[in-house]
Design brief:
The complex is a heterodimer of chains A (166) and B (791). With 166 residues, chain A is an alpha+beta fold. Chain A folds into two domains: 76 residues, Beta-grasp domain (Ubiquitin-like (UB roll)), CATH 3.10.20; 75 residues, [2Fe-2S]-binding domain (DNA polymerase, domain 1), CATH 1.10.150.120. Helices cover 37% and strands 15% of the residues of chain A. Chain A is built from five helices and five strands; from the N terminus they run ββαβββαααα. Chain A has a five-stranded mixed beta sheet with strand order 2-1-5-3-4, covered by helices on one side. In chain A, helix 2 packs across helix 5. The longest helix of chain A is centred in the last third of the chain and has 25 residues. Chain B has 791 residues and is of the alpha+beta class. Chain B folds into three domains: 154 residues, Aldehyde oxidase/xanthine dehydrogenase, molybdopterin binding domain (Aldehyde Oxidoreductase, domain 4), CATH 3.30.365.10; 197 residues, Aldehyde Oxidoreductase, domain 3; 252 residues, Aldehyde Oxidoreductase, domain 4 (2-Layer Sandwich), CATH 3.30.365. In chain B, the strands form seven sheets. Chain B has a seven-stranded mixed beta sheet with strand order 3-5-1-12-9-10-11, sandwiched between helices. Chain B has a five-stranded mixed beta sheet with strand order 7-15-14-13-8, sandwiched between helices. A four-stranded mixed beta sheet of chain B has the order 18-26-27-28, sandwiched between helices. In chain B, strand 16 and strand 17 form a beta hairpin. The relative contact order of chain B is 0.13. Classes of the chains: A alpha+beta (166), B alpha+beta (791). Chain B: Keywords: Molybdenum, Oxidoreductase. Chain B: Pfam families: Ald_Xan_dh_C, MoCoBD_1, MoCoBD_2. Chain B: This is Carbon monoxide dehydrogenase. Chain B: InterPro entries: Ald_Oxase/Xan_DH_a/b (IPR000674), Ald_Oxase/Xan_DH_a/b_sf (IPR036856), Ald_Oxase/xanthine_DH-like (IPR016208), AldOxase/xan_DH_MoCoBD1 (IPR008274), AldOxase/xan_DH_MoCoBD2 (IPR046867), AldOxase/xan_DH_Mopterin-bd_sf (IPR037165). Chain A: Pfam families: Fer2, Fer2_2.
């Protein structure tokens, strides 16, 4: 038995028949071949599969694909327009916030959620927000700096927009 | 050699990052081949059990099932080998029981594979694996390395009496060491466990193997740290298939930390199975399987005595260790507790008498092998715990005690290397320098005052120091061969100049986070005086790269980078011949600098690109010179490299709960010359988190039945972002005297020095409040620290 779903992923509409037990992350990786979202565990602990569902960070291994029916989804592939990098992507590169890169997409998507509702987070805010994302390579030090870099850059852009508007 | 173009020593942003931050990385599980099938395993739920029967008939009838194989089907295939042969003290070879691809008679640890189910989808494979019926007769299990050697313990392998794989000793004769300890004014004794660690690369292991009948060729995509070594072991030792018919590719790999060095049974089994079914077979480990099967690290039970004379000089060190190897011998298992551990027990000290005795033991647990640092963290933990504890016992300052016992500085050029009592000769060192810098950064004297004030106010502040030395860039081949290695430990570097002057570099090293695509390109661009974007680093594909030994033991730059430099030198030498011909000068008058060949005393020059083109379009070309500009080199180092450093932890312990708060962490590391400071610092950070993780959070717990009781992220305490302060790091540079780049290696340093620093800090905090405890078992949970305070 399969169930028809309709999702909008990175701005593109998809209609697919999926097995009810299919996890959202499996649908994204196997059906849509969006392999930037990773699977690092089987207990919703590591955060490598973090994406945005209707604008909020969600662990896509903890949702069934059928639960995403009618949802707007953003994955790492859709975070930037493909030409310019998102400030977080830029921050991770500038601050050496990644090594093997496996946790990076989930880390960036979680951080993007944080910056949406806390544009000026302190070090402890960032560390707390990233608690559900494991990184084994960086010791988190440069990830914290990467998020700080992005926050500053995004604030500067906002400030600039305001000044231009005024 | 050209002068630098400034690439070496710069924190160049990584060229590999673009694909990772945009979700375009290509890891093994991302690869789907035409007609792909998927595997799932039937694994023993018991640590030790006789297999009475296996019934696959119901599973075979499940939807989507393509094939099921059991141990009987692969009984004729060899097991996976161990790459390092050790001998008992009496000269007998170590016990090497077969490590079969699938077990037939007995399962020896939880997770041992009984059958493989291959189906059209991963879900169907898993569904079918669940209905394979296996009758087990559970047998008693052993999990503790010491208890396993005692009379009456159940045997893991019938032909390994007392579960002993081998025993081994190194250093001065034990009688001499016993006498020196007995004659010492003070002896510090410590019995401790260096607990078992789960490596936990965030990418689970994954393999995808395929066979092309028309060409009789196999391709294995594998999440490995060393594709060529996997090919060699799998072809020559396990499957007996010709090596040139197998391509092994390690694409993007999501972290290794040692656990992806080894040749695992699943790699060989999938490669065997793909030919049987004529379709590609893929398997990706679940995290639960990773916990049960990815080679664990550490797991030593140790008793050590360190003697001191009346002036605080170390007189002798005596070490007895039981090292747990798990149920089988993993690829490097036998050398980790011996040649990577015993040989490091000189540490940074002038200890005149040292003896180490190791008993390596089989148990009904996951195999144990190299995990970030591999043996060297165990040695460092032992030494630095003893020295700090001795300082407390002798009521002397731990900095002074270390300074008094350090080997004096030596550069390895004008002063000779330092010959230890335990076989190694250190290359160059300035151990006083890193400790001095560390305590300066910390503000040591002020902190000691603050500690006293805190104690007076009922607060427990602790300062823990650790200094370390490690042996990296493992080599030379002749030496490791004499110690039992069954492979050489050189590296291969090929530099191919394209006709347009662009450069393709093929290295046998493998990057799984280390950033070789950047660092190696910096070296090449610097030496040729060309833009970095003109250089491409190719690694991880046995079909592209001639050969390689892979990446582990912090060896990539020291050994792999040196091989590349050798090829660069050959290219410049040939380039000079071509340039001399073009410029109508004698070869001896040609210089190469900043990307140009020039003639001494003239303004004549020809660019690197022009020489490259001439090499491939040799219309006007020196007689007797072959066209082309492409060289390959094997570099076999003269010695190991010996990075060292000083790590200091500051903790506050909650009196009421025993909770440890890590307040500061200072690390001064000397890894020789540095190509990219940003990447080196990143390597240190990651190592620190793993080392601190061992001290405070992590550890595999097997119960007496051999069940891993914390085999998931819900149970195993992984270090998280909010467990750490910002690290305070600095470098000292003492170049390696024996490789062309002067580099020593930075991959493992952080994980080696940090663990004892944190434990020492907690012990120090407790002593400041009068709790004179000698040891707290790691991980130092609140409960363990609280109990220590109540004793």
């Amino acid at each position: 038995m399969s169930v028809r779903i309709h999702v909008r992923v990175n701005g593109v509409d998809y209609h697919h028949d999926v097995e009810p037990r299919t996890l959202l992350v499996q649908y994204l990786r196997d059906t849509l071949r969006l392999t930037g979202t990773h699977i690092g565990c089987d207990t919703s602990s590591c955060g490598a599969c973090t994406i945005h569902v209707n604008g909020k960070a969600a662990k896509s291994c903890t949702m069934l694909a059928v639960q995403a029916d009618g949802c707007e989804i953003t994955t790492i592939e859709g975070l930037s327009n493909g030409i310019e990098l998102h400030p977080l992507q830029e921050g991770f590169r500038e601050c050496h916030g990644l090594q093997c890169g496996f946790c990076t997409p989930g880390m960036i998507m979680t951080a993007a959620d944080l910056l949406q509702h806390n544009p000026n987070p302190g070090e402890s805010d960032i560390r707390h927000a990233l608690e559900g994302n494991f990184c084994r390579c960086t010791g988190y030090h440069n990830i914290v700096k990467s998020v700080q870099y992005a926050a500053e850059k995004m604030q500067a852009v906002q400030q600039n927009k305001k000044e231009v508007a005024a | 050699m050209s002068t630098t173009n400034g690439w070496i020593g710069k924190s160049v942003k990584r060229v590999e990052d673009k694909r990772f931050i945009t979700g375009k990385g290509n890891y093994t599980d991302d690869i789907v081949l035409p007609h792909q099938t998927y595997a799932s395993f039937v694994r023993s739920p018991y640590a030790h059990a006789r297999i009475l029967s296996v019934d696959t008939s119901a599973a075979a009838a499940m939807p989507g099932v393509v094939a099921i194989f059991t141990g009987k089907d692969v009984a004729e295939v060899n097991g996976v080998p161990c790459g390092w042969l050790l001998h008992f003290k009496n000269g007998d070879p170590m016990k090497e029981p077969k490590h079969p691809l699938l077990v037939t008679d007995k399962a020896l640890h939880v997770g041992d594979a009984v059958a493989i189910v291959i189906a059209e989808s991963a879900a169907e494979a898993k569904d079918a694996a669940e209905v394979v019926m296996v009758d087990y007769e559970e047998l008693p299990a052993v999990t503790d390395a010491f208890k396993a050697t005692q009379a009456g313990a159940s045997l893991v392998h019938d032909d390994a009496p007392n579960n002993i794989c081998f025993d081994w000793t190194l250093g001065n004769p034990i009688e001499e060491v016993d006498a020196a300890i007995a004659a010492s004014a003070h002896v510090t004794t410590l019995e401790f466990v260096n607990q078992r660690m789960v490596p936990n690369a965030i990418e689970p292991r994954a393999y995808n193997s395929s066979y092309e009948a028309s060409t009789d060729k196999y391709t294995l995509y594998t999440s490995t740290q060393n594709p060529h070594l996997i090919r060699l072991l799998m072809c020559a030792f396990v499957l007996g298939i010709p090596e040139h018919k197998v391509r092994v590719v390690g694409p993007d790999v999501g972290g290794g930390f040692g656990s992806k060095i080894f040749h695992y049974t699943e790699e060989a089994l999938l490669t065997w199975a793909t030919r049987k079914i004529g379709r590609p077979v893929k398997w990706t480990s679940t995290r639960s399987e990773s916990f049960l099967l990815d080679a664990h690290g550490r797991d030593h039970i140790t008793k050590a005595d360190m003697g001191f004379d009346k002036d605080g000089k170390i007189t002798a060190l005596r070490v007895k260790t039981y090292a747990n190897l798990g149920a089988y011998l993993s690829t490097f298992a036998s050398c980790v507790p011996t040649y990577l551990h015993g040989t490091l027990l000189q540490g940074l000290y002038t200890t005149p008498k040292i003896n180490v005795d190791v008993t390596a033991v089989f148990t009904n647990t996951c195999v144990v092998d190299a995990y970030r640092g591999a043996g060297r963290p165990e040695a460092t933990y032992l030494l630095e715990r003893l020295v700090d504890l001795a300082a407390l016992e002798l009521n002397t300052d731990p900095v002074e005690l270390r300074m008094k016992n350090f080997i004096p500085p030596f550069d390895g050029i004008t002063q000779p290397g330092y010959q230890t009592q335990v076989a190694l000769q250190y290359d160059s060192g300035n151990y006083q320098g890193v400790l001095k810098k560390g305590i300066e950064m910390l503000g040591y004297a002020d902190l000691r005052k603050a500690q006293k004030e805190a104690a007076a106010n009922g607060r427990l502040l602790g300062i823990g120091i650790s200094t370390y030395i490690e042996a990296c860039g493992i080599a030379p081949s002749a030496v490791v061969g004499s110690l039992g290695a069954r492979a050489g430990l050189y590296e291969v570097g090929q530099v191919r100049i394209q006709p347009t002057g662009k450069v393709s570099v093929y290295t046998g090293a493998h990057s799984h986070g280390q950033g070789h695509e950047t660092t190696f390109a910096q070296v090449v661009a610097d030496k040729f005086g060309i833009p970095m974007e003109d250089v491409e680093i190719i690694h991880g594909d046995s079909e592209a790269v001639a050969f390689g030994m892979g990446t582990y033991g912090s060896r990539s730059l020291a050994v792999g980078g040196s091989a590349i430099v050798k090829s660069i030198e050959k290219i410049i030498e040939k380039g000079k011949k071509i340039a001399a011909h073009k410029l109508e000068a004698s070869e001896g008058d040609v210089n190469f600098e900043n990307g140009k060949f020039t003639v001494k005393g003239t303004d004549k020059s020809v660019s690197f690109g022009d020489v490259a083109l001439t090499a491939y379009v040799p219309h006007h070309y020196p007689k007797d010179l072959e066209p082309g500009l492409d060289f390959s080199s094997f570099y076999d180092p003269a010695n190991f490299t010996y990075p060292f450093g000083c790590h200091i932890a500051v903790v506050e312990v909650e009196k009421e709960t025993g909770k440890v708060h890590l307040k500061r962490f200072v690390a001064v590391d000397d890894v020789g010359n540095i190509i990219n400071p940003m990447i080196v610092e990143g390597q240190i950070h990651g190592g620190l988190a793993q080392g601190i993780g061992q001290a405070l959070f992590e550890g595999a717990d097997y119960d007496e039945n051999g069940q891993l009781t914390n085999g998931s992220y819900m149970d195993y305490c992984m270090p998280r972002a909010d467990d750490f302060p910002m690290f305070e790091t600095a470098s000292q540079v003492t170049p390696c005297p024996h490789n062309p780049l002067g580099v020593k290696g930075a991959g493992e340093a952080g994980a080696i020095g940090s663990t004892p620093a944190v434990v020492n800090a907690v012990i120090d905090a407790l002593w400041s409040a009068g709790h004179k405890v000698k040891d707290i078992r790691m991980p130092m949970t609140s409960e363990r620290v609280w109990r220590a305070m109540q004793s």
